[in-house]
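Progress narrative, Year 2. Work on PCI domain-containing protein from Coccomyxa viridis advanced from sequence curation to structure prediction during this period.
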Amino acid sequence: MEQYLLLAKGTKGRALVDLIQKVTAEPGIFAFAELLDLSNIKELEKSEHAHAYHLLNVFAYGTLAEYNASRASLPAISEQQQLKLRQLTAISIAEDKKSIPYEELMQQLGIANIRELEDLLITDCFHQGIITGRLDQRQKCVEVLDSIGRDVRASELQPIIDSLQKWMAGCESVAGALDERRQWLAQAAEQAEQDRASAEAAVQAAKNSMKSEHDIRVGSREDMQIDDVEGPSLDAMVEDRIGVGSGRPKRRQKTHAA
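Result:
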């Protein structure tokens, strides 16, 4: 397209008409709005070559059916241009529908049989990358996955802008809700960490308290064992030695004089 734009900027009259015929037949070019924006192209509308200007408008925004409806006032087109209009028409239909019946396509594209339609879709649409999809031969329809875009008339821009703004507002709303959720999760995680630390501290304090009580109990039990076992045995030994507690002095062993 850049080459045609450069040529068009320095061209007028009949040469510009010929350029329009060539660019509309060029394989791989499916957008023409940039040409229509050129001042010398716009001048064609009010000249003797207005039919070329209107033909370029059909290729930019219209369909094969629109061309056929205005065929009397438009220049004749070649087979390559007719193929291009069929491709552009298929793109327009694919933009609005994700499942297109064969019957509708054949009517819109001016094709008489299914074999010719499938050849066009596979070779000139799918392989060209202008439409992505698959043929459902059992249901006799085309399942569209994606398609390239076409030029948009100025009168059609506002609804698109409104739709995009609505979509952006929805995205901003979702982003705000996600941010609020993120903040709530961060606060919840922080609170959970504080609760975990408090619980661990409480558990450790309980363990320390239980250990202290256990140590005190063990120490008391050991003291009691010492009092019960060693104390009475020592007293008994003392009493036995000094003769206390039996009620009579301990008898001494007699000794015989030699």
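The chain has two domains: 2-151, 158-240. The two ends are 154 Å apart (CA to CA).
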